[in-house]
Amino acid sequence: MISNISEHDPECTVQPNKTVKDGEDVVLTCTINLDTNAPGDLVWLKNGKEVSRKEGQNNTWETQLNRSDDNAIFDCQLQHYTLPPGSEISCGDKIQADVQYLSVFNMAVTPSTTVKERERFTIDYTAQDGNPGPSNMTLSREEEIVISNDGLDIRYTISRISKLESGVYKCEANTEFYDGSYEYWSREKRIVVHSEYIFSSGQSLRYH
To answer: What predicted TM-score, i.e. pTM, was given to this entire model?
Structure first.
């Protein structure tokens, strides 16, 4: 029997890093130094739920982290027969996962990709639910940048659009991750502006 087991805390480590990209593997290691070959069970928990249990002084658990694991708390407990229920010993430093993943981008045009001259026209370019957010977002027309910013949503409005503003509008974004790598996203839409003709007979409309 070990009379001073409560003085020993498990040590928790993660390799290669607690910050990872979506889908990367990590190795969580929990160790404890006790003067015995059977210290009980070392138990890994994720957000308080058991995910791995091993008897001995070492519990190495390999797992893949994805975006649903972002901000998850990993903890290791020593469970020993000399400890009363509810008195399990946790590692001093819990591990909080930082899982990085690409934003969900969207490009929406109002009223549509085909508009009448002198109509109000809007492009909304948004980035949602990314970790981290995009480091740069641009909107261009025929390869000429119209708006560029550092990761903020873009709204581009033309109050009275003309045929000269027809063309291919492209949204682009770059996201930089913890390891210095980048991911690129783009989407484009061709906008066609029609002239409007009004005839005296019934005020009918025709476009070309």
So the answer is: 0.79
